[in-house]
Amino acid sequence: MTATPPKTLGGRPSVTVETIGEAPGFAVLRQEWDELLQSSDSDGLFLTWEWLYTWWKHLAGDRRLSILAVRCEGELAALAPCGLRPRSLFHWRPLPVLEFLGSGSVGSDYLDIIVRRGREPEARQALASHLAGERLMIGWTQLKRGASPAAGVASALGENGWGIAETGTNICPFIPLAGKSWESYLATLSAEHRYNFHRKWKRLNRDYTVQFDQVRSPAQCSESIDLVIAQHNLRWRDRGGSDAFHTPDLVEFHREFSQVALERGWLRLYVLRLDGKPAACLYGFLYRRTFYFYQSGFDATYDKHSAGLVTMGLAIKSAIEEGAEEYDLLHGNEAYKSHWSRDSRELGRLEVYPPRGLGWICRSSVELERASRRFARRVLPKGVFA
Predict the structure, then answer these.
(1) According to the model, what pLDDT value does residue 42 have?
(2) What is the reported pLDDT for 94?
(3) Is the Cβ–Cβ distance between 89 and 357 less than 8 Å?
(4) Contact 271, 291 (CB under 8 A)
(5) DSSP letter at 4?
(6) Same structural domain for residues 144 and 106?
(7) What is the mean pLDDT of residues 134-143?
(8) Does residue 279 share a domain with residue 355?
(9) Could you give the CA distance from residue 182 to residue 196 in angstroms, rounded to a whole number?
(10) Using CB atoms within 10 A of its CB, is residue 196 exposed (0-12), middle (13-18) or buried (19+)?
(11) The predicted structure's pLDDT at residue 235
């Protein structure tokens, strides 16, 4: 493992922080990472070793790996899965920025520091003490707002003079499913939406031979993930585009991760076929009794049959039948999500700046850059400024 030597903190040789800075060190963490995640309150798909390691391979960009591992009495007690983006005056970054792995347009929600239950005080103090000696800014995004290990570390840094900016960024609609059957769930929806789903479903079965297939093999996975990408991009082509699959690196990430998720039993990739032709598809994951709806696509030929709406309903039904306790629609306030869900949780961004003048300069630079972007979006034609 290539890493910096562990730092012993506060005269306590039992608590150390190690920085893992190269991919081989990341790779060998897999087993410990999985055990730690299951023993934490942050357990979720987007903090798995598999998701973040695949992200690192394809989407790290100019970041340098900087995973902070806290050990207590030799046992892995916490991981801050981060990368360090270099300083760049051209990009308004006068200091390096410590970011979570999984950041960016890939759409990872609920990023955080992973902490073993019962080790929260030691992990918080160890990470804060370690970071207090660094010359950097912290930019942690896609956090679940409220109490979180990352917020605790930021608060500890704030006690040492660091500046903190916390902002709400998005919402994640979700459907509580524990104890529900398909029929009892449908009863929670509006009468209009319930009627619309039943009407469209009956019409499809009247007009076509309907198949709702789940991907089961690597060959099916390869074919179907490309179908999701093609249908999704075609749907958004005349609406200004979508950033779900808009770069070759993102496409390669999903091609690889879908295969990994299939192998682990997490992948839920469905294709709705009408008379044998793919009309719609839905790309999601079932992880620890939570279904994560990630993305979907449909063939505009079947617009009047609402193939996308029917596919969403059938995916929720399947999730219930598999024992899922939650169907998470992930971030975004698109209108169609409100038809299926009544509950939501907030996501936020934490920015932490070092004390004194350097932190002030860094914060001012970030705020100026954001103001420039807002101005550009107002005055430039749609699609010119991304």
Answers:
(1) 96
(2) 83
(3) no
(4) no
(5) P
(6) yes
(7) 95
(8) no
(9) 16
(10) middle
(11) 78
**Is 127 contained in some domain?**
yes
Q: Which two tokens stand for residue 182?
A: 């398909």
307 contacts: CB under 8 Å, gap ≥ 6:
204, 272, 274, 279, 280, 298, 299
Q: What percent of the chain has pLDDT over 90?
A: 80
Q: Where are the beta strands (DSSP E) in 177-305?
A: 210-214, 267-274, 277-287, 290-298
| pLDDT tens figures, 15-29 | 999 999 999 999 999
Same domain, 288 and 362: no
Instruction: For residue 287, give the amino acid letter.
Output: Y
Instruction: Give dist(CA 26, CA 2) in Å, integer.
Output: 9
The number of folded domains in the chain is 2
**Which neighbouring-strand residues pair with 281?**
271, 297
- Amino acid found at 49: W
Amino acid at 209: T
Q: Are residues 311 and 195 in the same domain?
A: yes
Distance, in Å, from the CA atom of 108 to the CA atom of 292, rounded to the nearest integer, reads 11
Residue 149 — very low, low, confident or very high, per pLDDT cuts 50/70/90?
very high
Assess if residue 334 is contained within a domain: no
210-219, 226-235, 262-271: range with lowest mean pLDDT: 226-235
User: Where residue 237 falls among pLDDT bands split at 50, 70, 90?
Assistant: confident
What is the domain range of residue 235? Answer: 178-324
Cα-Cα-Cα-Cα dihedral of 157, 162, 163, 169, to 10°?
-40
User: Is the domain of 13 the same as that of 112?
Assistant: yes
pTM for the full predicted model: 0.89
Whether residues 156 and 230 share a domain: the answer is no
- Could you tell me the CATH number of the domain that includes residue 54? 3.40.630.30
- Please compute the mean of the pLDDT values over residues 316-344 and round it to a whole number: 96
Query: Residue 285 falls within a domain, yes or no?
Result: yes
